[in-house]
Specification:
The chain is built from 12 helices and no strands. It is mainly α and 310 residues long. It has a domain of 102 residues.
């Protein structure tokens, strides 16, 4: 397998961060989003060995064992299988391509395949949407009940509970975008594990400081705003999900630009960013988004003398 360019590779902290992001963002079983793509990579990519085949068998056994408890059991595994299949196909076709290009391509392909299914069977989407919303509502209800049981009936003010319920309703609206982001993080974790498992001579995933993606994807963000502002109903929901998905990617790109300009991530900078996020998360995210979006046209890292990745 050819190398993905030269340079530094993402280490253990980055891999742990990807796993954490998968767990936090995923409305599906995060283990499935990692395990099924990893099993497909271990089984079908050229660098496989006996260890890979054993790992693939065990992961497949764990992923598909058990008794289905709801329709989401099938949806979760179907999504993860499509995601892994698309990534596998893109890797076999462009083995030297950057991970982010193959990862975003796999997420887009999975969106397209599921969208085609729901377009031909509209009732399926209604069922999935209802099931996901019910899962979110159930999780929020259990969390509120646990807090009240531990601290007391008046532990959560009425206004706070109302805001939490509003946030849950918003999450139910944008769960496709959140699932896409979790899927991208899961593919990153699975690809990192695959490279370590097979000791492939490849840089793999670059560190966050070098994060960027195809500049033409700005049109997805623009289309999302157009749909969000000009079309009600289904198209409006598609628009808000496109804006959320691309907005988060641009915020991470902006963070990468900021870290590069400050000379790279350090423990002190990480602590400062952590507390800044706790105090002023909306302003920090908005600033990172602006930096990331500006990097599309201005290539800020190159303009300010910071080496930019390929």
């Amino acid at each position: 397998m050819r190398r993905e360019g030269s340079g530094r590779a993402m280490g253990w902290p980055g891999a742990v961060g990807l796993m954490a992001a998968t767990g936090v963002l995923s409305i599906a079983n995060p283990g499935l989003l990692v395990a099924i793509p990893l099993a497909l990579m271990a089984l079908f990519l050229p660098a496989r060995g006996r260890t890979s085949i054993v790992v693939a068998f065990l992961l497949g056994l764990l992923a598909f064992s058990g008794t289905p408890t709801s329709g989401l059991w099938y949806v979760e595994r179907g999504w993860a299988a499509l995601l892994g299949g698309w990534f596998l196909a893109l890797t076999l076709r462009w083995p030297g391509g950057a991970f982010i290009s193959r990862g975003l391509g796999a997420v887009a392909g999975t969106y397209g395949a599921m969208g085609l299914l729901f377009w031909t069977r509209p009732g399926y989407w209604a069922v999935v949407d209802w099931a996901v919303t019910s899962r979110l509502e159930g999780g929020m209800a259990l969390a509120l009940q646990a807090v009240r049981s531990s601290i007391g009936p008046q532990a959560i003010p009425v206004a706070t509970e109302a805001r939490l319920l509003e946030a849950m309703a918003l999450q139910g609206t944008i769960f496709p975008a959140i699932l896409g982001l979790a899927s991208l993080a899961a593919l990153g974790a699975a690809w990192w594990m695959y490279l370590r498992l097979n000791r492939v001579d490849e840089v793999g995933i670059r560190p966050l400081i070098e994060f960027r993606f195809n500049d033409q994807l700005v049109w997805v963000l623009i289309l999302g705003f157009v749909l969000l502002l000009g079309f009600p109903g289904v198209l409006e929901r598609m628009g808000i999900n496109a804006v959320v998905f691309m907005g988060v990617l641009y915020a991470f790109r902006g963070l990468a630009v900021g870290w590069a300009l400050l000379g790279g991530p350090t423990v002190f900078l990480g602590i400062v960013l952590f507390f800044a996020f706790l105090v002023a998360a909306p302003f920090l995210l908005a600033g990172a988004f602006v930096f990331g979006l500006g990097d599309t046209w201005l290539n800020l890292r190159a303009r300010w003398g910071v080496q930019s990745p390929r």
